[in-house]
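quick one before i forget lol
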Amino acid sequence: MVGQETNRTPVTPPRSGRDFRHFAAIDWSGAVGERQRGIAVALCDRDDRAPQIVRPGHVWSRADVLGWLQRAMAPGTLVGMDLGISLPFADAGAFFPGWADSPPDAHALWAMVENMAASDAHHAVTSFVDHEDIARHFRRHGGRQGDLFTPGRGRMRVTERAQEAMGCKPTSNFNLVGASQVGKSSLSGMRVLHALNRTIPVWPIDPLPAHGSVICEIYTTIAAMAAGRTAARSKIRTGADLDTALAALGSRAHGHAGPIDDHRSDAIITAAWLRHVAHDARLWHPAAMTEKIAITEGWTFGAH
């Protein structure tokens, strides 16, 4: 394809056994409004106790999550955020091919999203996707599909192709429509990541440090599959099923009785999975991730 990344030199792998002290997973939401019941945060330590929901009963805002990351999260935490940290780049050599102002890398993309959407409340991104040159690349509500939106499922990142090979069914971050849309979640998340101002590295867009906290992109289906679920049955909605999945990840039971919403269960399972696999250097060094892909498209932790 035009502009397809051809440099196969991989990113230098980190040493095995990064010594994280805590593991957090954030189930994210890009929905309209300030507070979102679709946001859940789960946290665990290095022992085998089940992850617990942070601030149970609280309805989080995206600003709340940003504040937690900046001021309340313990040092040495590996935190996974369930959103796309960038847009496709490798397939066409640009985020927005044919546009002279297309950003050169993910940090510049985040800055552009923030600059264009700064007046949108609650980390929304309406002003960004309404831009006449950018809108051409997105599928939006009301039958508004940009003339440069790739027909079908839309453009994919290299990491999303890796997810497909694992049996997952990822959706393009250029899609803003439907139950499976991830575009608004990803773009709103980019505003939060930009606001952190590199105080917490975002792997692999930023190098993996030897110490300290790190943010990575997660896809909760990967964690559920590692816990014995299938991609089609990745959502867990009972305490009994939650404990079965946790056991497969070396965790003690959570002990939740009865129904549980899948936002909380996704966060709990994924935090336990991060603890279970973070020592595996292979996951920090996926074969298809080149230096160029790392700084432009990023990667989903666990995709291989």
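fyi The mean pLDDT is 93.
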